[in-house]
Amino acid sequence: MNSLSMILRILAVVAAIAATALFFVSKGKLAEQLEATQKAKQATVAVQAELTNANEQISSLEVSLNNERDALANEKSKLENMRSEMYTARQEVSRTQRQISEAKKNIVDLENTAKRLRADLLQSEQSLASASKESEIAQLNERIAELEESTADLKESLEDAKVTSSNSRAPGGSGGSTDSIGFAATKSQALPTASIGAETTIESLSATNGLIALANSPELGLSPGTTVTIIKKLKALGKVQVSQVTDDLVLANLLPGAKTREMVAGTTVSLLR
Asked: pLDDT tens across 42-51, in order?
């Protein structure tokens, strides 16, 4: 019994010592755990702060990303608009080039047509001038022939008048009765005259401008648009067309073929219609 109690006491003492040791050991471990817990809390706070900063940075990055996305979308929209405008501009350029090509072709055609029309006009003018000159020359030749016939008749009449006058004055005649007969014969044969027209005077002449100014008189009876032939000493100098008539002057245009060298200012001429 005593030994048993002794053993129990020893066990109790050992247990107490073990409990004390365990207490001190557990207390040290608890302090370590508390210290580790505090460090963990501090680390958690630091991590939470970093996490907060990271979240803020993530939010900022998300905002920036959204802004970049919006900017990218705007750039894409602008790019699409620019592509559409470039496509439209290309179409416009192509259409303009086609129009320019057609315009150049039309210009070439018009130039060729203009050249052909100029050639036709020149040929027509030459033909008209040639026809007009030929017609004027034919008329002048006819008139010259008539004037030559009238001149021949006039010369013949003058010769007859001279012969009659010399016969009436010859000796051995019957006196006064012979003179009266000769006079009657001479009077009965009227001298033919060439109807050339009224006379006028060349006041001035401009061969460069193709203008001539004649002295006007009531006997001329000219009006704008009238075409007359200028005659000098039974010689045709050319045709003129009246453009303006005043009380003192008749202004006219020289027609092709006029002999301007013989139309001297101050020369008296006749007008043949």
From this structure: 888 888 888 8
